[in-house]
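just leaving the lab so this will be short. what follows is a protein written twice so to speak, once as letters and once as structure tokens for the fold. can you read through it and tell me how you think this chain folds. anything you notice is useful, everything is just below:
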Amino acid sequence: MIAVIIKYLPHRASFDLVLNALIEVAEDKRGRRKGCCETRLFSSRETCEIKSVSLWESQEAFESFVDLVIEHDCLFDFQAEHLRHEITTQIYDTVSTSNADKSLSDVAMLKFGG
């Protein structure tokens, strides 16, 4: 399993549009995020920043989803029009700990505060 943290920096005028688009992606009503176990979004209107934290079964599953988005959803056009900087993605291997039963939201709260 891997954890993926993606940072989006939308233009202030596009903040709601980008946030709503990311909510739609996270809800995955089309069933396109095969291999994604959970996703949480964190947003700050003050800094105009949105982070997505998700758990995936494998890096291959995540990369398959990214390929699908690039191929069908005009990701680069969206990025050029609505974001101040390129999307940044960090991928981490998950580590088993004695707290392995914690949900992603508990882990994110520890990492990002709250």
User: Anything to note?
Assistant: Residues 99 and 107 are 9 Å apart (CA to CA). The chain has a mean pLDDT of 86. The two ends are 25 Å apart (CA to CA). Residues 59-72 form the longest helix (14 residues).
